[in-house]
Design goal:
five-stranded parallel β-sheet, globular, 19 strands, binds flavin-adenine dinucleotide, 15 helices, alpha/beta, 19% strand
């Protein structure tokens, strides 16, 4: 009795939780509405090109390692990773900066651009490392139940950093606007503006420069495949094309779920689908959060994405490329303060076939382009096409590639697709931002306060957006369910 668990969705957080729960002897069934597993880390294979549809930066390898170690394995038992050099390239209006793969080389690169910046960066990174040790090795593994979780002898000494912000602290260290942008970039993964992100979160800079950027062979989807293999070996059952349309509750206890119209009884239910969507599967009296609650939250951006197959190899680009050749502040304002399509967007492009040739046909390149957008903006074919032309023209100018007539294949993905494919609130790409007021116990709960045996995991709850936090979120909720 009490041993069957339904997991809604198959994103990283659900996969992680499923593994921990199965290891404890629960009978776990994962129901995924789409045709494949992995959630936002879906894979697109077409005409010989392979694309990761969502996450592409493998940061914080220690978190992945810790996950597999919990089951007596190493990540290399499931997939191999390679450190990228350059980690990434950043294109500015009239220059390009490559970020090397060791701290010493990064210090040297900074010093060449701004005299004295190497020393300042060294101090900044030492602090970022100390925050990483506190946050990622300890704090994020606490379930966000009480504010007291955040009070430790180490955090008390860092209290001031929760009341300053990343943007301010970075500007105390470097003056060159390009170096400022490079140091502000990592916290964008947390979903808010650097100005709205507590200085304590500079641990992301240590993740970037100190730990490096890695690439799994076969792409991020290789990680999904590894986790699914592990889950299956622990006895987890997966059902795809399985849309959960209702969570049944009687007297504040869930009895199971309806999948594609059929009732399935379970002792406990865990949802890794977007939190807001999961609550729409409940009767009003069993919802914890109102529409006004979600409306007031700061969400991570949505994105306009393009998956493009080129019929030739490209020059002057790296595996990961950031195009910071327009006004960062203005784009951020048009995402968070005055939501609309950005006037001159910053964008990101990756070409995994540069380091993993199997992801494109011989002599070809696969390209993934991402423009961050405000969640909930209007999404039409005409707008997608207008922005494709905008970024491709800039890409050609900045890199010297001529590519508009070398496209074998092109597919776009935007706000409407995030909603229809993932049931994403307002089409957010990566969840709810980590700001001071949206941290730890201030985020939506892992455990329902209304329904006794209903739980939540994923990027809208604790600890927050990103693949490593999703792995941690699964571990945290499994811990609560096992208790
Ligand atoms: C474009 C993009 C780029 C990103 N880049 C990075 C990156 O480089 N590095 C990084 O670390 N992170 C990145 N992220 C963030 C990262 O991908 C996410 O934080 C993480 O994958 C979220 O996992 P999750 O388990 O919370 O949710 P999801 O992956 O969203 O999984 C939820 C699942 O639930 C399913 N579902 C929803 N409703 C139902 C229902 N009713 N019935 C059944 N199933 C349902 C969905 O189909 C989905 O499969 C990126 C995200 C995006 C979108």
């Amino acid at each position: 009795m009490g041993k069957t668990i339904a997991v809604i969705g198959s994103g990283f957080s659900s996969l992680s939780a499923a593994c921990y729960l199965a290891k404890e002897g629960y009978q776990v069934t994962v129901f995924e509405k789409n045709e494949s597993l992995g959630g936002r880390a879906s894979q697109l294979k077409v005409e010989g090109y392979t694309f990761d549809m969502g996450p592409s930066w493998y940061w914080m390898p220690d978190v992945f390692e810790r996950f597999f170690n919990d089951f007596g394995y190493k990540s290399s038992d499931f997939y191999s990773i390679e450190k990228l050099n350059p980690a990434y390239s950043v294109f500015f209006e009239n220059s390009k900066i490559d970020i090397p793969d060791t701290l010493d080389d990064i210090y040297a690169a900074f010093e060449k651009i701004e005299k004295g910046s190497a020393k300042a960066l060294e101090v900044f990174i030492a602090d970022a490392k100390s925050n990483y040790d506190v946050a990622i090795k300890d704090l994020v593994y606490r379930p966000g139940i009480s504010p007291l979780e955040l009070v430790t002898p180490k955090t008390v000494t860092k209290l001031g950093q929760f009341f300053s912000n990343v943007s301010k602290e970075v500007r105390k260290k470097v003056k060159d606007p390009r170096l400022v942008s490079i140091l502000e970039f990592p916290v964008l993964f947390l979903g808010a503006k650097p100005k709205d992100t507590p200085a304590f979160y500079n641990f992301m800079n240590y993740a970037d420069f100190g730990l490096g950027t890695w690439q799994p062979k076969g792409g991020m989807h290789a990680v999904v495949e590894g986790m699914v293999k592990l889950a299956k070996s622990l006895g987890v059952t997966f059902v795809v094309n399985a849309n959960v349309d209702r969570i049944h509750v009687e007297n504040k206890i869930t009895k199971g779920i309806t999948v594609n119209g059929d009732f399935n009884a379970f002792d406990k239910v865990l949802s890794g689908a977007d939190y807001h969507h999961t609550e729409t599967l409940l009767e009003v009296e069993n919802k914890q959060y109102s529409e006004q609650y979600w409306e007031k939250k700061i969400f991570a951006p949505s994105s306009l994405l393009f998956y493009v197959g080129f019929d030739k190899k490209l020059k002057n680009v790296s595996h990961h490329n950031l195009f910071f050749d327009t006004d960062f502040e203005k784009h951020a304002y048009e995402i968070y303060d005055d939501p609309k399509w950005p006037t001159e967007p910053l964008f990101y492009a990756n070409f995994t076939s540069i380091t993993d040739p199997k992801t494109a046909p011989e002599g070809c390149e696969n390209g993934f382009f991402l423009v961050p957008l405000a969640p909930g903006v209007e999404d039409t074919e005409a707008l997608r096409s207008q922005y494709f032309n905008k970024i491709i023209t800039r890409f050609e100018e900045k890199t010297g590639n001529v590519i508009q007539n070398n496209i074998n294949f092109k597919k776009s993905f935007c706000v409407n697709d995030f909603v229809s494919r993932y049931n994403s609130y307002k089409g957010n790409a990566y969840g709810m931002a980590n700001t001071l007021l949206q941290t730890a116990f201030l985020r939506p709960n892992l455990r329902s306060s209304k329904v006794k045996n209903l739980f939540f995991t994923g990027q809208l709850t604790v600890p927050g957006p990103g693949v490593p936090p999703a792995l941690i979120s699964g571990k945290l909720v499994a811990g609560l369910m096992i208790d």
